[in-house]
Amino acid sequence: MALEHAILVSLLERPGSGYELARRFDRSIGYFWTATHQQIYRVLKRMEADGWIDAQDVPQDGRPDKKVHSVAAPGRAALAAWMAEPVEPESVRHTLAVKIRGAAYGDPAALIAETERHRTAHADRLARYLAGERRDFPEGGEPTESEELQHVVLRGGIAYERMTLEWLDDVLATLRRLARARTASDRTQS
């Protein structure tokens, strides 16, 4: 997926300035597609030059005008064409998993702190996802079609983080058990 497609989806959900779009990436879109603020501004400029988006200068009191972007007809057509293309299932590249497999040839105890660090990062991400869900999708609301689709993507992220935490707990239990067994074995051989 190109950054252009993520930007088009975001601008269709709500037109905005480059700054507002970058904040949306920080708050929600960035959970599954990351981009720096510089990348977003660079791509916005190119998309405007290609006619995919329109920009309107909006005056602000006491501040420079801001440029509010919205999707133009060629941008909608490009997004529709991209959405019609098949997408291959993504392969997972997981460096920590390779290190865990390699622990049999090194020191399993050496990976415990790194695995705990990963667990903390995933627990923090899950907490952010759940806070976002409470904030953006309150119980009893009447969601729009767009909101329903945003929520189903967020629920996928929540499920992924919960699964990852469960797996990391299993990894930690295994590493600790193997480290204890190796320590006991080293003592009996001494």
From TrEMBL:
It comes from the Bacteria. Residues 7-80 form the Transcription regulator PadR N-terminal domain. PANTHER family: TRANSCRIPTIONAL REGULATOR YQJI (PTHR43252), TRANSCRIPTIONAL REGULATORY PROTEIN (PTHR43252:SF4). This is PadR family transcriptional regulator. InterPro entries: Tscrpt_reg_PadR_C, Tscrpt_reg_PadR_N, WH-like_DNA-bd_sf, WH_DNA-bd_sf. Signal peptide: none annotated. Residues 92-176 form the Transcription regulator PadR C-terminal domain. The lineage of its organism: Bacteria, Bacillati, Actinomycetota, Actinomycetes, Kitasatosporales.
